[in-house]
């Protein structure tokens, strides 16, 4: 009987030792994972070329159709998926439930990676929903130029779909006359679009002239966007992306320079503005805040470009290295 008791005790102690070792191993893994999260880094597999997810939450009338055309031409060759996010009724914000669905879906749709998502959707904070954030990119345009382009686009269409009837077709009122007559369509408050697109889904983001929204937009641009370019320098924007994410954009600059994709959607007719029209907008708070955001983004893009590209827009390559490695 004593022999069986000793055997049972030995077996128990062996099992206990295994459980302690297993628990210690799990604890070490959790500790390592926690340390990684605290230091702001993520496991390498999350950012491998196979798991890369890019989200271009494109601002309307900034040349986005031309840029997206490059992605569609490159996706088969460079082996990535392109997906258009179509929000019902052309809304630029999502309901809370749709935000959650989209964040969870985009973060876990492994069969569609590497991937390039695009759509006219305001910035979305994925961390708020417990999801990994994609790499955000965007293009913005001088605010008054963007508004004027959209005004004439609604009347004359573009060369992308020249036979499509636009909702203002037949209305030949110039933008200058629209402003002079005080029509609602030309109200300076309608400039308020690029700031809220970067600000996000908070109600105050969409209040024209809100200074908090401007600061939030700047903060998101710096902290959450891999790259924000300007329409006026789209070629340089393409070059920086190719240098930074070659597994998606290899060959993009050459394709852009061929001309077939550099002006894919050009408004058919656009009249130059009178000086008094320009002065009218520049006196408005909304223009001043939108222009401040544009200038802020432009300065950052110019800085990024100077650090990334040579004068001919080729990649400068890696500019750091390791040394004094010990022990040898």
TrEMBL record:
Location in the cell: Golgi apparatus membrane
InterPro entries recorded: Heparan_SO4_2-O-STrfase, P-loop_NTPase, Sulfotransferase
Pfam families in UniProt: Sulfotransfer_2
Lineage summary: Eukaryota, Metazoa, Ecdysozoa, Arthropoda, Crustacea
This protein's name: EOG090X088H
Originating species: Daphnia atkinsoni
GO annotations of cellular component type: Golgi membrane
Self-association state and partner proteins as the record states: Homotrimer.
Any one GO MF annotation of this record: heparan sulfate 2-sulfotransferase activity
């Amino acid at each position: 009987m004593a022999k069986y008791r000793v055997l049972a005790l030995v077996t128990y102690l062996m099992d206990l030792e295994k459980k302690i070792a297993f628990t210690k191993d799990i604890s070490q893994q959790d500790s390592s994972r926690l340390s990684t999260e605290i230091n702001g880094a993520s496991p390498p597999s999350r950012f491998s070329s196979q798991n890369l997810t890019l989200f271009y939450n494109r601002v309307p009338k900034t040349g986005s159709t031309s840029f997206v055309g490059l992605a569609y031409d490159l996706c088969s060759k460079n082996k990535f998926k392109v997906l258009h996010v179509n929000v019902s009724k052309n809304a630029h914000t999502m309901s809370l439930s749709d935000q959650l669905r989209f964040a969870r879906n985009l973060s876990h749709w492994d069969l569609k990676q590497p991937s390039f998502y695009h759509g006219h959707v305001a910035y979305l904070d994925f961390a708020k929903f417990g999801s990994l954030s994609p790499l955000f990119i965007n293009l913005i345009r001088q605010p008054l130029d963007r508004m004027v382009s959209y005004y004439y686009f609604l009347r004359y269409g573009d060369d992308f779909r020249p036979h499509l009837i636009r909702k203002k077709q037949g209305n030949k009122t110039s933008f200058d006359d629209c402003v002079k007559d005080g029509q609602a369509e030309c109200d300076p408050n309608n400039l308020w679009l690029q700031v809220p697109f970067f600000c996000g889904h908070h109600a105050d983001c969409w209040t024209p002239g809100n200074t908090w929204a401007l600061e939030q937009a700047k903060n998101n641009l710096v902290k959450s966007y891999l790259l924000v370019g300007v329409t006026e320098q789209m070629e340089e924007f393409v070059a920086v992306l190719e240098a930074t994410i070659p597994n998606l954009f290899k060959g993009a600059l050459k394709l852009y320079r061929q001309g077939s994709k550099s002006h894919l959607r050009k408004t058919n007719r656009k009249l130059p503005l009178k000086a008094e029209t320009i002065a009218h907008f520049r006196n408005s708070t909304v223009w001043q805040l939108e222009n401040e955001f544009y200038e802020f983004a432009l300065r950052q893009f110019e800085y990024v470009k100077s650090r990334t590209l040579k004068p001919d827009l080729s990649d400068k390559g890696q500019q750091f290295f390791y040394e004094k490695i010990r022990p040898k």
